[in-house]
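Consortium newsletter contribution from the modelling node. Members have asked for a concrete example of what our holo predictions look like. Here is one, prepared for the adenosine-5'-diphosphate complex that several groups have been discussing at recent meetings.
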Amino acid sequence: MIRSLTSRLIFLYCVILLMLGAAFLGITVISFRHYAGQVITNILASRAQDIWRMSRDEFRHPDRLKSIIERRFSPESQDRFIRIEVDGKTVYRSGEPLNGHFSAKDIPPILPLKEGEVLPIGEVMLYAKSFTQPGGPRVVIETGQFQYAQTVEERLIRSLFIGLPILLLMAAIAGYLVMRRALTPVESMIRAAESYTFNEPHKRLPTTGNEPRIEALGLALNRMLDRLNSAYSHVNRFTSDAAHELRTPLTIIRGELELIARKEKLPPDTDEAIKTVLEEMTRLSGLVDNLIALSRMDSLWGKTAHDTVDLLDLALETIDQMHLLLEEKHLTVTKPRGPAVLLPGDRGRLKQVLVNLLGNAIKYTAPGGRITIQIRAEGMMAVVMVEDTGIGIDPEHQQRVFDRFYRVSPDRGADGAGLGLAIVKSICQAHGGTVSVRSKPSVGSCFVVEVPLSATGASSPVASTMESRRFAEMSTSRELSKTRAKAV
Ligand code: ADP
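And here is the predicted structure:
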C-alpha cells in the first residue's frame, strides 16, 4: 500500500502514461498495418494490370514474355515475385531474388484463387488476378512483393517497447521533481508547525508565495494559532492572578501558625495538628510559587536579558545552600569539578533548574545514598548531570515526568505537585536547551540538561535580573523551609 501522496500521484501518473502508451502503440500499429495493406494491394494490383497490358499478346512466346517482364519489372533485383499461368500451365515465374529474402520456387499458387486479395505467403505478400480475352485462354497473373511492411512494423513495435519504459522512467522522475517542488511549501509549513511552541507565540506558518489552496490552509492554521494563543494567554493570566491572590494569605497563615507553634504551650494533639497543617501550608506555598513561576516563564518569553553565568559556580553555591537537606538524609554528594562553564543566560532561573533537580534527587533517594553532580562543556553545549542512587523511574513514566502536574505515583512518599520538572523543562527551552532523563527503577536516575554555550538560537525568558534573582531565592528558601517546617 503506497501511503505518500507523492508516490501515489507518481504511480497514478505512470499507470495513465502506460495506458496511453499502450493505446498509442496499438493505434500506431493498426493504422500502419491498414495503410501498408492498402498501399501494397494497390501496387500489386496495378503491377498485375501492367503485366497483362504489356504482355497479353506474348503468352505463346515464353522467351519474349520473359524478356519483357524482366526489362520492365526486374523482379529478382527488386524483391518481386511474378508468376503467369495460361490455362493452368505456368508460362513464366520470376527467378530467386538477389538478396535471398525469399525462395521464389517455394511459393505455392493461391488455391482456390482469391481474386483481388493480398495474402501473406511466407515472406511474400501475394496478389492474384485472372484475365481473359474474348476467345482466348484464361490467364492468371500473380504478383508478389517481399513483406517490407511487416519488417517495418516489427521494428516499430520493438522501438516502441524499448522507448516506452524509458519514457515512463523519465516521466516518473520528472513527476517526482515537479511534485517535490510543489510540496516544498507544505514541507516548510510542517517544519514551522513542528517547531511551534507557546513560548514563541508570535511565530506563524509561512504562507506567502504558495499555491492558493496551500496558502489558504496556512492562513487558516495561523488564524487557529491566534485563537489558541489568546485562549492560552487567558488561562495563563488566570493562573497567575489566582496564584498571586493566594500567596499573601498563605504567607500570613503560615507565619501565624509558626508563631503559635513556638510560643504557646499546646496540648500534644493540637501541637501535632499544627505541625501537619504547617507542612501542608509549606506544600501549598510551594505549589503557588511554582504556578507563579510557570506562568511568568510563559508570559516573559522572548525578552532577552542575559547574564554571563558560571554554571560550575552556581552549582557549588546551590549545593552549599541545600546542605541541610543533604545532611538530614545522610546523603553523600559528589560536587562538580573542573574549569568554569560560562554561558549567557538567566542566573536566577538556571539556579532554579539546579535547585529542582537536586531537590528531587534528595527527595527520591533513600538515606545514605549518593548524589553526583557534573558540569562540563561538550562541543557547543554546556552539560549538567544530576545523578542519584534513588528509587528511579519506570520507563513508561520517564518522558511524562516533564509534563505539568505529572507525578509518577503520589504515594511514593514525597510531597510535591508535579511542577518541578515542568519548570526545569521550561527554563531549559527558554535557553535553547533540553532536559532528559535516564533512569532504572531501584537503581537511580540521571537528569541531563544541555544548554548552548553561546546565545545563538536561545531566547531567554528574563524580564529583569532582580526578578529572576528573587525567583531563585524563592525556590531555594522553599526547599529549606520544608526542613524548618519539620523542625518546628
Ligand atoms: P514533584 O514536585 O512531584 O517532585 P517533579 O516535576 O519534580 O514533581 O517530578 C515529577 C515526578 O518525577 C515526581 O513525582 C517523581 O515521581 C519523579 N521524579 C523526579 N525526579 C526524580 C528522581 N530524581 N528520582 C525518582 N523519581 C523522580
